[in-house]
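Email to the structure team, subject: Dihydrodipicolinate synthase family protein model.

Hi all, the expression group asked for a predicted structure before they design truncation constructs. Nothing fancy, just the tokens so they can compare against earlier work. One-line instruction: predict Dihydrodipicolinate synthase family protein, return tokens.
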Amino acid sequence: MDYSPLRTALADVVAIPVTPYDAQGAVDRTAYRALLRRLLDGGVKAVTPNGNTGEFYALTLEERRLVTELTVEEAAGRAAVLVGVGHDAATAVEAARHARAAGADMVMVHQPVYPYVAQDGWIDYHRTIAEAVPGLGVVPYLRNPLIEGAAIARLGEECPNVIGVKYAVQDATRFAAVSRDAGLDRFVWVAGLAELYAPSYWAVGATGFTSGLVNVAPNVSLDMLGALRAGDYPGAMKVWEQIRRFEDLRAERQSANNVTVVKEALAAMGLCRRDVRAPSKPLPEPRRAEVAAIVEGWSV
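Reply from the structure team: attached below.
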């Protein structure tokens, strides 16, 4: 199978859409479709329903399936759809097969939350999922600095449909080593820590980055992508400075407000409710005003 179109889609801004809720706490289908259209109209070429910014672990099985189906329907070939799957291996396989049946292009495998992870066990987990959906591209989401490049390389040798890695370890030096040990050209390397880490990761091999901020300001994220592709690091850092406070708010207290800040910005723009599910929590009033002021300054 020719995976080059999917590899091209990953080497871009990979948007992680939020999952909006209605007044009764259910997934707001109308708002979700509108937010997706805004991303697509803004030029986004890859979307990841059921990512962490989409509150993957707070959604029920039925809701995750619904979000998958809505995304595929709304994308309608305008962007590649990379569905987040995870939990135990059997659940992840079932979700991956559902994604394939719905018409998705790829699956992103959330890092296993099991506390005891062996290198070979990590390979086995991802192989089980990849072999279950040979027609889909597979992208492991890696947050564990102990997973070595050799393990990723072996997974790639055994599973040709593992085409990219979303790398989200806060260490650009570690990323440079792991990506080269695994195969810099074998996989598409996606900076999984979004815009603030994108310039440093890009400098040592990443060709795409994930984004939750793109929900709010697609033009800002795409401006950074354009600068990085042009090798214009001063231009990329100009965007970095513009978004720094927003992303710092998301990162506070081990990213406690990662989703909350994005939804607050969207609420300030009248695009969806600010509601998030526990264990996340809406922002207090002073922070709401600060987020609204930041977004107003972006002219989005």
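The two ends are 40 Å apart (CA to CA). The longest helix spans residues 233-255. Ping us if the truncation boundaries need rechecking.
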